[in-house]
Fold each of these.
Amino acid sequence: MYIHKMLLQGSFFIMHYRTLVRNNALLILLFTESLSADFSLSNAYPIFRILLLFYKYRNPVSDLASKFTNPVLRNLFQMALDWGPNCSAFPIWTLSLMAQGNAGYPMGGSLPLIESVEQKFKTLGGKIHFHSKITRIITENDFSTGIELEDGSVKNADIIISASDGYSTIFNWLGGKYTGSKITHAYQSLKLFSPLVYVSFGINGNFSQEPHTIRFALKKSFRIGQDEIKNLSLYNYSFDPSMAPEGKCVFILMIRTKYEYWERLKDNRELYLAEKNRIGEEVINGLSQLYPGIREKIEVMDVATPLTFVRYTGNREGSYQGWVLDKKGLTMRIPVTLPGLKNFYMAGQWVSPGGGLPSGLITGRNVIRKICKTEKRKFVTSQE
Ligand SMILES: Cc1cc2nc3c(=O)[nH]c(=O)nc-3n(C[C@H](O)[C@H](O)[C@H](O)COP(=O)(O)OP(=O)(O)OC[C@H]3O[C@@H](n4cnc5c(N)ncnc54)[C@H](O)[C@@H]3O)c2cc1C
């Protein structure tokens, strides 16, 4: 979702290049063309100067923005690139992927994207069992030998690769039996991406002439738990005709929130639903600032909370992208195997701080490469 936001930010950079030069930010932009999608320390060694840049811009955007002397520019920079505690090099890296043509918005959203992956996997002989919830990873004499599903059935396997939530994998499904100092340290010290309240609207109206993203200050702030919500970011999907019938469109707004607040509401369904509804109403009030009369145009409203994210993805505390890529995340290498356990590997965002779709592909490929090495087989891909 942040990808098209970056487009707007791209034009922001160009508009303010003088101030950016003064603050060295243009320097980063010049280097972004050569930044690899496979961002890991091992891959970064050959491009030493890039590593230096990541080192230099290891602090969050708020630190970088504070260097602007012009308050308007400072605020703009903070609002446009803000990504919480992540290092400021991270959004720049995302821009670089776009500049290389390695990132963008897939028309139709995530469904056709994942369907193409599914199709490819099947043509290579893969089989997928949907709606099969794992409750345990079975081990025998420190070899992983299978998985147990929610219905009690067992599936045996020669090799197990977990691409699910890291905490559940290590501490629940394997009972915390295979950890070590590195893993314990990572799970105790790395920060999670803040979960989201994700508000979506089906709008009966044509907003195709409006910007794709608008971040705006609310005239009247509102609260979610202890957090005061002062700004909103609106994503207008009018540019993707597959999202809604002609003359209609989809708006979404993502608001960072605290998991503990929602955890407390978990067992009180009435209160939970009322809170979702209240937040939806607050967001509509905010949107009315931009578009008076929008309320009458809203045909559908959906409010997803961190509990929704946990229910659908199983990810710890609803973190939408795993671990934050801050100073600690930048330098920490998470093992893809567990000490003492054979025939077992991990892939996905929980072995690669910063997460995101690229991390899924890169860590998945690296695990297969590792397995090939162990089995003394040549690692080949179907594309050069
Ligand atoms: C709203 C939103 C916007 C985002 N925008 C972007 C973006 O623009 N660009 C980007 O790069 N990233 C984006 N991300 C982040 C990105 O989606 C994740 O980082 C990425 O999907 C992580 O991939 P993964 O394979 O590691 O984990 P996941 O995609 O979380 O996959 C884990 C899988 O494990 C399954 N699972 C969990 N528990 C069990 C169980 N018990 N049994 C069986 N299966 C189980 C889940 O069903 C899921 O299919 C976004 C995320 C969100 C929520």
Amino acid sequence: MAQAVERLEISVNTPAGQVTTPVEVPVGFVPVTEIVPLLRRMGEQALALEQRRAEATGQRISCRMGCAACCRMLVPISAPEAFALRDKILALPDAQQRTRLDRVSAARARLDQAGLLSRLRDIAETDRQLSDEDMEQTNRDYYALRLPCPFLDNEICSIYEDRPAACRELLVTSPAELCQDIARNPVRPVSVPVRMSTVLAMLWADLTGGPVRLIPLPLALEWAERHHTERERTWKGSMLLEKALEKVGRFLNYCKM
Ligand code: SF4
């Protein structure tokens, strides 16, 4: 039986303008994955406002389907998204699921060969709060491999509707060819009003008492598998929404400072 829901409309002021969206809040208890689609949607709406601002100044977005140069960077994914991704992969028909899992294994083997796998596992599991500076060298070393994301098929994302928030946040206005070497070329990204992967990671930290954890995407499925009992925990829908919006507010305030 479908859960009873309360229908609301929420508005958030971002640097790009106000985002307003209808939301159905479950009256009962739900897992944290329930909040993921709403936050991703709000993030996309905020980014669309930012995109319009860029276009109003004569800039054009160069990102197009089939251009996946940025799918060679290390994508950080929050725990709620890792659980949602595992649910998605487990719901695929057997053959598709096998293909995905094989690609993930192949990516892990490549990372192991390059001496990066254990470093990424430490990042996924540490209880220490990592800073952007802590991640800098690992991000560089990962990008140097030019390892295609295991969810990339013929330069098209195979989980497009379910792709992580971080993947939705990278739009550029510089010529597409510059993205072939993001580390060296003067790539111009559209500024991101609110990073929902971080917001979701802050929410998970609050719910579980751990650090604001961002998991390297190629390890997201194994991380979610190892932590699957946490996936079963539930919280009141209204409480999850309240906490999530508070994290959005904290993120926006922090960025103003
Ligand atoms: S999940 Fe999709 S969009 Fe994100 S890096 Fe992988 S292939 Fe690219």
